[in-house]
Structures are given as structure tokens and as C-alpha cells.
User: Fold these one by one.
Assistant:
Number 1:
Amino acid sequence: MRSVTLVLCGSGGRLLGALPAFDVPVPWWQEVESVVAAARDVHGVDVTILRLLEVAEPAAGSGGPVTYLAEVADAPAVPLVPWPGPDPLADEPLRQSYARPGGPGADLAWADTRLAELGTPRTGPATQMRTWNLSSLWQLPTAGGTVWLKVVPPFFARESEILPLLDPATVPRVLATGQQRVLLADITGDDQYDATGAAVLDMVRMLVDLQIAWLDRTAELLARGAADWRLTGLGPRIEAVAARYGPALTRGERADVDLLVAGLDARFAAIDACGLPETLVHGDFHPGNVRGRPGALVLLDWPEIGVGHAMFDQQAFLGRLGPSDCVEAARYWAGRWRDVRPGADPDRAAELLAPVNELCAALIYSDFLDAIEPSERVFHADDPARALRAAVARPVSARPVSARPVSAAVPSRSP
């Protein structure tokens, strides 16, 4: 449950005042469809949510009293109260375009132009689904069915650059791209957060098939802006993040992180000795980022797509599964890569990568915090330190490692 206060501004950027607070049942701060609907139902006001202003419980991630800046076309008839906080319209260099008055309108105008060019113009009002520091998401009705408009910050622009290059049977169908915007066709079915059994293995197969297809094309991905998670070059970046957020850890946690970071070169050498390639990685692969129905699944949400170790995505995926599905998915995943690289040791590589994945997560969150405006940092403020703790949460995580040579049967190139 959220208790929502909306501070209203006109489309020209004039501050109008705040609506009386109202409740919405969906707790997640970035989900705004219910907020827009409740503002209409409770106060008779049509709003567009621009950005988060403040929350009462910063560590919660959802629920509690929350305040947004919202744009209205006309001053509402309902009485407003003065907003006592800082001026929400004061300029902020890191503010996203869709978080400014007029920004969402410009995004929808772009979408309408593209839809008209495609011969499927919008047939009704757009529905604002989500907005936060990582994306703005709209649902658009058209004569040809539902279309999704996604707008992202500059640091996620790679998604619209790379998505059209990927297998259209595996990723959302791209209708148009431009200026950090992408129009996507709707996907029939359901989000797969609770997937089990064959569906889980199908997801793994789809990702690994993509990875195999891009084994010899990683330079193309990097040229299009893919994130660089290759082991070479990761060490100094991780060391800097560990030093920056280490003071937030306990003395023991910090000592474990320092030991882990000091051993990265040896760990990377051991991972490399497992005999697997670097290729395309999703960056946030889990069942919730898959939608569809059995036999017709689609892998969603690619803004963190990058180039990294073939097993880079495994830990996040397995962590969302039940015990039996986790075992079966790991076995299937390793088997696929042993077929591609006979003699390789995918299981050993995944084990060695586990703390590295968490260190990379700390790096990702740190980059987010550097690129988003102060009021929106509440979404990620604790995440770098949390990821560092997770990196050394298992007793063996920081233990020194040594390389195990793999079979000489490992080929030098992919098939």
C-alpha cells in the first residue's frame, strides 16, 4: 500500500500545488498506472507522473507515504495546498527528459508519428505504466493491437541499438527506435516470474542459443554500446567501487571484500582456464524478464546487455528458482556449453564467477547512482554496499583460488 501525494505542475512548468493524499494498493514506487487511475477516480484529475520527489521510508523500496511530481494539462477544480518542500521544478542536470514537464508529451508525439508511418495509428488514450530513473513505460492502443513505448536514460540507450540485431523469435519485436526510445509489439501471454519445469529450461536454451550465435560477433555488440563485462579490465573498476563503498560495511565484511578483490587476478585466470568463451550476456536474466506462453516465450528487458563470460547470467537466474528447478537448470546449462566447448568446465566457471557477479552488481548500482538525480537515488542508494556484502556472504567466496587446466580438447573457436 502507498499513501500518495501528487505535487502538480502545468505543462508550461508552473508549480500549482499538491493534491490531498490518497491510497493505492500497488506498493512499488515505480509502478504508476494505479496512481494515475486513483488520481482520476478520487480527485477527477488526469495526471502524468514525472518523477519521485520523496519517500517516508527510504530503505523500504515500496509502500508507505510517497510524493511525486505530476503534470496536468489544466489547473484542477479540486483545492490544492502549497507544497512546503524544495522547488521540484528547479533545474537538475541529471534529470531525465521524461521526468521534465513536456517530456512525456514529446515521447508520445514521437510514438504517434512512428505509428502513423507504420499505418497503425493510436486509437485511444495512452496508459502510463511505469516511470523511474531507469525507464518510462507506456501502453498504446492501436488498430493493430497493443504497442509499448519504452524510453530510457542515455546510459541505457544500447537497448534500442542492439535489440533490432537479435533473433526476433527470442526478443520483443521492434517496431521503431530513436533517441533512447523504442516501440515494441505486444507479447501474448504472461510474465514468467513463477515459471517451473520445461519453461525454465526453455529460457536457458533461448539465452544460450543467442550466445552461441554471437560468439564471433562481440566486437559488433561493443561498437553498438554493449556494456563491457569482460574479465580483462574489470579489476580496477571493481577495486574502485569496493574502496568507495567499503566504509558502509562492517570491519569484517570490508576485510573479506579486500581479500576477494586482492585475489581477482588469480580468480580471473582460473575462470579463463575453465575453457569457456566471452559472448553476449543479458545482464539481468531471470524468469520475471521472460513473457509469453509455453512454447512461445520472449526474453525481455535488455538495457544491460553486454559482453562477458558465457556463464555470467547464470547466478541471477538460478537464484529465482526453487531447489529442483535450480538443479535441473544448472545441469542443462552446463551441458549445453560442454556440447559447444568439449572439455570445458562450466560448473567450475559458474562457481568462481558467483562473487564476481555480485561485485559487478555493485559496479552497476554505483554507475546508476552517478547518473541519476538526487531525489531518485533512493531506489539504489543501499545497493552497492548490499552487493559487496553478497559477494562475500558465502564462506568460500573470498578464499584464494588457483586455475585448473581443462582438457586440451577445448577448441580455439566456436563451431
Number 2:
Amino acid sequence: MRNEWRGNIWMIIELTIVSIILWFLFTTICTIVNVRMQHAGYDVNDLYGAEIKVVDEDSPYYRHYDSLHSPLTDRDLLMAKLNDNPYVETVGAGSNILTYSYNMYGMYLCHDTVCYQGNLRSVTPDVIMAYKIESQDGKTSSQLADIISKGELIISRPDFMLGNRYYDSSLFKDKDVYWGGDSAIVRHVGAVAYGLRRSDYEPQWGVIYAPLPDEAMPDQMVIRIVHGKDREFVESMTTAEKRAGNVYLSNLQSMESRREIAHSQYNTLIRDYLVCAFFLMIMIFLGFLGTFWFRTQQRVDEIAIRKVNGATRRDIMRRLVSESLMLLAVSTLIAIPVELLAVHYGLLDDLNVTYYHVVTLTTPEIYQSMAMTVGFLALLILAGIWFPASKAMNVCPAQVLKDQ
């Protein structure tokens, strides 16, 4: 290796550059996968979502109200009809309650000098039951629904940063908070639970579940149906079943359909990443194969002399592989500080892995991608050196030495 120090230096430079590129690629992929695999904390199977609409007063289909009826009574009648459907388990209504929707109604709660910001979701207790939302502090979905019934708030639990200090959102549990920072409006936080995410590819942000006021008209509805009764439920939802007075359901869809539509752009982006990764890996492999082929052919006479002196094929292969892995180790020692500096200065702090948001890089993903990079490069080196080394060891030592 000392005799070939010039070639080894260029090889180390090549491995270092390839290592940094692969690390960035694996970091992006790990970030996407880790976010996608996060535990949701709620169940969207057998769940349908719809928008609640009110017939315009100028419409010929508008029905005028008397003193006893209003859109709110139509709402109650519509929900009663749905609850009487034999294929329906639970019906909940509210505002901003549908997953796979990119609405963001920002609201913040303050306690002492610390404020918690989240996506406001105004819900009835049945929304909690329909989604089967899980608590992060030991409560059941029924207990969470009771908290909403009592007029209290529920928040989700992502850690958040204020200044240079990290806070756990459980800090607000069982505390009185100022609604929107207004000290005249005091609300009580009754529990900490999982928050409804806008997408499976979006990390868990802050969510505030607030009771929907009785006098408020909801604009969305979630319906949990009996398992395995999708077809029967859809067939039962005639126009008459989806309307009560001037209130009707629009855009009734299963959450699976909503998820497929919402994730179409994400899936395209991920496919593009994987295709780029595949071609990049092929190029890296071919580059390694050509490099090691050239390096091995230059050492054919050395291999012949070692074979004449009793070296076995395994001994020669072990030497070639160990030398290559030693070069990889040196390049890794150079690449890791460069990668850590990139993280330290925030060059990869926010990865634009989706069209709508950024995902913050975490420490486990940094070292996970580093390990993947080193392991993958080691495999490429082994694959790239095996074929040229096998060809070189098949030569006749006498013929090689004669040619020399």
C-alpha cells in the first residue's frame, strides 16, 4: 500500500465524496421512512369523512324555517338519521376534523411564560370515539370523550422548543391556560393524546382538541362503520339519507380514498427518490468495478509471485479485500466530520422531503444513515473487487512471470 500511495490517495478521495453523497441520500430516505412509520395513535380503517353543507337561501331547494327549526335542528336530525343506519357505529361532527386535509387553524395556549401552539380541531365527543384516539397519559378513548364533554381541552404531545430550552407538552396537563394568550379566557387542559396528522408523511405537530360549541354549525363529519360493511353502507347512503332539511353531506369518501388522493404527490416524490438512488448505486458500483479492475490488473505479477510462494486464493482475496476496506475506513474517518459539520451548521437541518412541509433531522437518523452508508459501501467494494480479483487469480503464474 505504501508503494501505491498515490493511487490510494485518489481512491480515498473518491470514497469520501461517494460516502457524503450516499449519506445525504440515505438521510433523506431514513427521514421519510421514519416519519411514515410513526405510530399514528388513531384508527382510520372503516372510517368515512364528509363535508357538511347548507343549502343557499337563493336556491329553489331551500326550505324556509319556522320559529322551532334552524340549521342546527337539521344538523341534529341528520346525525340522528346516520346513527340509526344499521351499518354505522359512531358519528362525530366538528370543524377541521378530517385527516389527509392540509388545513391549519393555528391556536396557542399559554401557561405562565410558556406557550403551546397547535392546529385547532373543534370536535364533538363522538369524534374522539370515531377515530379511537389514543391517550398518551393512560386514558381510554371514552375518558377522552368525557373530557371534551366537560368542556375541557386535549392537546397532543410533540416536544417543542422555546428559546434554547425544550419543553414537554405534558407540562400543560391539568393546568389552566389562557386561550390565544388572552388572560380573560381561561380553559383547562384535561389530557394529552395523539394528534390527528394532516398526512402520514408529516410528523406529529401540536394539536388542540377543543369542544365544538353547541350553537356552532360544524362543517365536517366523520362516520365509523361496521367492519366489513363498506359496500352496504355506501349503497344505503341515498340522497335522502344524506340530507335533513337544508343540511346535507357532500364529498362523502372513505379515509382510504382520501389517503390515496392526499399521498399521490408524496408517492411520486418517493418513487423519484428511489429511481435516482437506484441509478446512482449502479453508477457507483460500475465506478468501483472499473477502479478495482484497473488496480487488480496492475498487480497481476504480484499475485502470481504470491501464488508461486504458496499463497492460496483465499489469502490473496483476503489481502485485496482488507486493503480496500482499510481505504474505506480512512475515507469514513474523513467523511464523518464533514457530515457532522454539515449538521452542525444546519445545512441539512430541514429536509424538503415533501411539497408541503419540511422534516427536521434528528440525531438517530444521522447515525442511522451513517451506518447504512458505510455498510452499503462495504458491500459495493466487496462486489466490485470480487470479479476482477477472481479473474486475476485464474492466470497461470508461469505465463505471467515469463511475460515480465
